[in-house]
Write a structure and sequence with these properties.
CATH topology of the largest domain: Chitinase A, domain 3
Order of helices and strands: HEEEHEEEEEE
Structural class: alpha+beta
Strand content: 25-35%
Mean pLDDT: 90
Number of helices: 2
Shape: elongated
Distance between the termini: 49 Å
CATH class of the largest domain: Alpha Beta
């Protein structure tokens, strides 16, 4: 019986060594800097309002560390394993920054065409949203619409490419 036991112990040792060498230790790979990943997410504000979600659509694809998403979102995905889900609250400083009154642009009314001079219109040059129109001026808010907000995301890592 001792011979069979010794044989099985050696066989188990060889199998363990093979799995270790092959990288099949049972630990799931995790997302690291430079990896391209796909995630599903839902973003909410402090009051519970959903401001964005990939639910029902394609997952968001981006490369970790490439500056393609806000820093707090990037950092939340680092170290996640495929199928892992987490909820994180990202402070203003790691999201879109604090609201800056200096980013309110005041333009003489005559320099803005009538079809554009409508409150709520989003502009690309200059970037911003029209927040006030009167007879003399048009005010354009150049802050990101989520500036000044802590953001909560529920994130699921779908794939590491």
């Amino acid at each position: 019986m001792k011979g069979k036991t010794r044989f099985f112990i050696c066989l188990l040792g060889l199998l363990a060594a093979f799995l270790l060498i092959a990288g099949c230790t049972g630990a799931a790979p995790t997302a690291g800097d430079g990896d391209t990943v796909k995630v599903h997410y839902t973003g909410t504000l402090a009051n519970g309002t959903t401001f964005d979600s990939s639910a029902g659509g394609e997952p968001l694809e981006f490369t970790l560390g490439a500056g393609q998403v806000i820093p707090g979102f990037n950092n939340a995905v680092l170290g996640m394993a495929v199928s892992e889900e987490k909820t994180v609250t990202i402070p203003v400083e790691e999201a879109y920054g604090h609201y800056d009154e200096d980013l309110i642009l005041v333009v003489p009314r005559e320099k803005v065409p009538d079809e554009i001079a409508v409150v709520g219109t989003s502009l690309y040059q200059p970037r911003g949203t029209i927040i006030l129109v009167d007879d003399e001026v048009v005010m354009i808010d150049q802050n990101h619409h989520l500036a000044g907000e802590d953001l909560t995301f529920t994130i699921t890592l779908v794939e590491i490419l």
